[in-house]
Specification:
Leucine-rich Repeat Variant, 66% helix
């Protein structure tokens, strides 16, 4: 099906095929009529699929199957598909009940699709609850698979399907939700907080409606136009996210006709004005991504005005941060200007950091090389990190001298940048940092060596596992967990009796994983450590030598059972008894 805007409202082809094949016989459907091209409701245009009318018995059977958890998933999904294609409003309560209770996720996905096809706005509150369960970093409702609509050639996530359903149903009653949103607090017979919650729900629906209705766009824009204290902070945040989605959608639509969209320009101005007022967050990155897709040049033009109008330091800081998030050639040029012209070191190091996000550019690289000699350690540190990202083949040569910088933060940044380069030419320089007097520099160097796989780097990581500082040993342990060689297992065995409880636990767990997935390397390490009379980890190695069918391991345990060290003898005898051996 197609909406009037021209974007597809998708239909599950498998469900349609099943219904068209079976429904006329099984459910007593009417004879198909010629394709209807006129509007069906305010948001649909029929594509030629016949409407299905169910007889009473078939209707009752369909409704009972939807909520009957004793039925198979396939039957319930097919029943929901039939209800959606027939647009059975009588099925709305049953579909909402499926979404409200504990049920199979596949049936819930089908229920959302069914409610969207039926087109009953009364289902919106239920869909809002489902949306809240499916959103956020730890959603309680998960559906990892993509929902495919082959007829339209489109795939959706579960959350996208929910929001599309809310938008379609909300479009039918946009005025109702606009009235709730614009009602002053206290107008309802509830407490002010409850009124605000009603308005939040209304705003969530308006965001899902998006560009389906110009009134929804205006409502979101009005929230950003008024002073910040007029609405709660989350209202402005939600409105900005909604406008970002509208901006991207309109840009894609207008790209086909190659016409200028003045409304999109106005939305860009509102988003730029808003984004320089908020602190770093995922929402800010989302808005910056939308600006990058839709209006990158215009956004940079609006942002760079803050460099010329003597804006406050906070606004200039946010401007530089957003320019880095835009990741365009134009934003890179603006950041080069900020790096070279700004007097405040904080603004300069943020500009250098932003250049590292913008990608390779000759102009940016020249400015960053110059910044390596800056008087501020923070600027040098940011420049080193940026060169590590965009420096290309020359980055090792450019970054390596900073390993010997007087400031430990710069040395740590250099070690990190060399590790990110994954260029083995940087190993000698990182080895120098691994012996640095500063703990943070040593730990950073050890982590960097983990990305530079050479014999020398592995030897340095193993040595770091015996470092007197806990931070260095912990970093070495984490790196060794991902190296499946005998020498790495030997170093992990040495950490099983570490003074730090966390290191002991993680090292033991890593050895158990190695026993299951990399037994050959672990066995070699066990034999070497158990047989070494000077290795303090021999007793611990016996505790991990549970390989009764390996003759070499058994032989090493028998020899350890007569070792001069009491702890080793006890561990070896204990493991032999566990194996059922003497």
């Amino acid at each position: 099906m197609l909406r009037r805007t021209g974007r597809p409202v998708h239909l599950a082809s498998w469900a349609l095929a099943w219904v068209l094949a079976v429904a006329p016989v099984a459910f007593g459907a009417e004879e198909p009529k010629p394709p209807r091209r006129g509007p069906v409701g305010p948001t649909y245009i029929d594509e030629g699929h016949p409407r299905i009318t169910l007889k009473k018995a078939a209707l009752l059977s369909t409704l009972s199957t939807i909520g009957d958890r004793s039925q198979s998933i396939e039957k319930r999904v097919n029943a929901i598909a039939l209800a959606g294609l027939a647009r059975l409003k009588q099925a709305v309560p049953a579909l909402c009940a499926v979404l409200k209770r504990q049920d199979v996720i596949d049936v819930k996905v089908a229920a959302v699709w069914g409610l969207r096809e039926i087109g009953e706005p009364a289902a919106i509150p239920t869909l809002l609850v489902v949306q809240s369960q499916a959103v956020g970093p730890n959603p309680t409702l998960r559906y990892e698979k993509k929902i495919s609509f082959p007829d339209a050639g489109v795939e959706m996530t579960f959350l996208e399907l929910i929001e599309d359903a809310i938008g379609q149903l909300g479009e039918l009653v946009t005025g109702r939700y606009l009235k709730i949103l614009n009602t002053p607090a206290g107008s309802y017979r509830t407490q002010a907080q409850n009124t605000a919650n009603l308005q939040r729900a209304a705003l969530a629906v308006i965001v899902c409606i998006g560009d389906r209705d110009p009134r929804a766009i205006k409502a979101m824009a009005d929230i950003l136009k008024v002073p910040a204290e007029t609405h709660p902070a989350d209202f402005r945040e939600t409105a900005a996210l909604g406008l970002s989605r509208v901006l991207v959608a309109r840009t894609k639509e207008f790209a086909v006709v190659r016409a200028r969209d003045k409304l999109a320009d106005q939305i860009t101005e509102l988003l730029v004005g808003y984004i320089v007022q908020i602190k770093p967050s995922l929402h800010r990155e989302f808005i910056a991504s939308a600006l990058n897709i839709a209006r990158p040049i215009y956004a940079v033009t609006l942002l760079t005005r803050h460099f010329a109008d003597n804006s406050s330091k906070e606004v200039r800081t946010r401007t530089i941060e957003v320019l880095g998030l835009l990741r365009t050639r134009e934003s890179s040029e603006a950041l080069v200007w900020a790096l070279e012209q700004e007097k405040d070191p904080e603004l300069r190091w943020r500009a250098a950091f932003g250049l590292g996000l913008c990608g390779t550019s000759d102009m940016a690289l020249k400015a960053l090389i110059k910044a390596l000699k800056d008087n501020s350690p923070a600027v040098k540190r940011a420049a080193v990190g940026a060169i590590g990202r965009i420096g290309g083949k020359e980055r090792v040569k450019l970054v390596a001298p900073s390993i010997r910088d007087p400031d430990p933060r710069v040395r740590a940044a250099a070690a990190r940048a060399l590790g990110m380069s994954r260029d083995k030419a940087g190993v000698p320089h990182v080895l120098v940092a691994a012996k640095d007097e500063n703990v943070v520099v040593r730990a950073t160097a050890v982590a960097a060596l983990g990305a530079l796989a050479t014999r020398n780097s592995l030897a340095a990581i193993v040595a770091a596992a015996r470092d007197p500082e806990r931070q260095v040993r912990y970093t070495a342990m984490k790196v060794l967990c991902n190296i499946h060689r005998p020498s790495a297992c030997e170093a992990l065995l040495g950490l099983v009796s570490d003074t730090d409880r966390r290191i002991r636990a993680d090292a033991s767990n890593a050895l158990r994983i190695a026993a299951a997935h990399h037994p050959k390397s672990l066995k070699q390490a066990l034999i070497t450590v158990i047989a070494d009379p000077r290795n303090p980890a021999s007793a611990d190695a016996c505790d991990f030598a549970d390989f009764p069918k390996d003759l070499e391991i058994v032989k090493a345990l028998r020899q350890a059972s007569v070792d001069k060290r009491p702890g080793v003898r006890a561990s070896a005898l204990r493991m032999l008894r566990r194996m059922g051996l003497r």
